[in-house]
Write a structure and sequence with these properties.
469 residues; alpha/beta; Fumarate Reductase Iron-sulfur Protein, Chain B, domain 2; FAD/NAD(P)-binding domain; five-stranded parallel sheet
Length: 469
């Protein structure tokens, strides 16, 4: 009986993963999480109950066959696990690192009812990393079906859509605005969370191995329009996965001062243009005191980047820690590294010196008011509670919206009041033959939700073209 209880307790506790020491990692851009060893991965996978009705699959936006690949890991057959994952995901090393598994697959794991859920994300990452390090190829190029599809944007939704269409035999070309493929994976997520060459470039290489072509430095709406792609270049359908890269600001005094950045610009300079590297020619302002405004994952990324560049960093957020939208893991890591959190605080003005440079923020204390119809308590200012915070760099991490260029240059393509493209549940827009998904439709969301939208659109595009043929 005691042995049985001991085995049960072992099954309820996940295998811990190694991480860099917080004091060390706060001064470098190396990856925080070291990942599982083969022995650790097998031990963690062996915890899986192999449920008959796996809730984890139903809660995965790309419907990854989780129990099937976990079973192969438990047997030590990592190559078979990689092949199972590849049927549904073209970016497993990315997803294993940045997906919010705690609210999706792991959040639905039966083990989590009485203990700790299976570490699905860490096991997915292990399989992908093992495959890369051991030269295991999972790309199977399909025979051509003679049809051409254009993909706008090489972020998660575009890559997922392109991969599924390529496996069905389509001639797929991705058009990317920037000089490197990857979208938000390149410019938005820091190196210490998502290595660019080791992980992102390799997985994009796997997409190319399916036969997908990627053209960079192409701005749809300027270099070429959607009409020209379809009418002159012979693409039978177009998928728009251009993301949401237009930053939002607070519209308060002082936002035009030197030293005020959007999180998008700040992270793009560091991630895509490698400003964190002393050998890089890309300038970036390193403040003595940096204040990041916002509470999402992007705010955590910006704050932790500024810290690594040598600044003291504070995050200000107008609600309480309980309402922080960032992943709990990212908040935990930020605190471990020494970032200060100022809750129930909202800026009302950015203060400047005589040279037009940031010198601080004037903020007001907030309190949570009565719940609204949705049950969420809105923050309200506390009268007479204004105070100043010293800062010479301010980073606004308040969300993003889609760039209006594509909608503005494509007849028949409708947007909603937030500037997002209007599309149905499978990604069909108001323009026949044009589909869309990811942040361009939903506004800023997660990598895995964008991939799920890309996969649904790929199936819809296939149906659209085959029914026309």
């Amino acid at each position: 009986m005691q042995n049985r209880e001991g085995r049960l307790m072992d099954r309820l506790k996940r295998i811990p993963v190694r991480e860099q020491d917080p004091k060390v990692r706060a001064r470098n851009f190396e990856e925080v999480c070291c990942g599982y060893s083969a022995e650790e991965a097998v031990a963690e996978a062996s915890r899986c109950l192999n449920c008959k009705n796996p809730r984890c699959v139903a809660h995965c936006p790309v419907n990854l066959q989780i129990p099937a690949f976990i079973a192969e890991v438990a047997r030590g057959d990592f190559a078979s696990a990689a092949r199972i994952i590849a049927r549904d995901s073209s970016l497993p090393a990315v997803c294993g690192r940045v997906c919010p598994q705690e609210t999706q697959c792991e959040g639905s794991c039966i083990l989590g009812v009485k203990g700790e859920p299976l570490a699905i994300g860490r096991l997915e990452r292990f399989v992908a990393d093992w495959s890369r390090e051991n030269g295991v190829s999972v790309a199977e190029k399909a025979s051509s079906n003679g049809h051409r599809v254009a993909i706008i944007g090489s972020g998660p939704s575009g890559l997922a859509c392109a991969s599924d269409l390529a496996r069905l035999g389509y001639d797929v070309t991705i058009f990317e605005m920037l000089h490197k493929a990857g979208g938000v994976l390149q410019y938005g997520i820091p190196e210490f969370r998502l290595p660019k060459e080791k992980v992102v470039a390799h997985e994009i290489g796997n997409v190319r191995a399916l036969g997908v072509k990627i053209e960079t430095n192409v701005v749809i709406g300027r270099t070429v329009t959607i009409d020209e792609l379809m009418d002159r270049e012979g693409f039978e359908a177009v998928f728009i996965g251009s993301g949401a890269g237009l930053p939002k600001f607070m519209d308060i005094p002082g936002e035009n001062l030197n030293g005020v950045f959007s999180a998008n610009e700040y992270l793009t300079r560091s991630n895509l243009m490698q400003a964190y590297d002393p050998a890089s020619d890309t300038p970036i302002r390193i403040g003595r005191h940096t204040v990041v405004v916002g509470g999402g994952n992007v705010a955590m990324d910006a704050a932790r980047t500024a810290l690594r560049l040598g600044s003291e960093v504070s995050i200000v957020y107008r609600r309480t820690e309980k309402e922080l939208p960032a992943r709990a893991e990212e908040v935990h890591h930020a605190k471990e590294e020494g970032i200060t959190f100022r809750m129930l605080t909202n800026p009302v003005e950015i203060l400047g010196d005589e040279k037009g440079t940031v010198r601080g923020l004037r903020c007001i204390q907030m309190e949570l008011g009565a719940p609204d119809e949705s049950g969420r308590r809105s923050p309200v200012p506390v009268a007479g509670s204004e105070f100043e915070i010293e800062a010479d760099v301010v980073i606004m991490a308040l969300g993003t919206s889609p760039n209006p260029l594509i909608a503005g240059t494509t007849a028949g393509l409708e947007t909603n009041r937030r500037g997002c493209l209007v599309a149905d549940e499978v990604g069909a827009t108001t323009r026949p033959g044009v589909f869309a998904g990811g942040d361009a439709v939903t506004g800023a969301a997660t990598v895995i939700l964008a991939m799920g939208a890309g996969r649904r659109a790929a199936a819809a595009i296939d149906s659209y073209i085959q029914n026309k043929a």
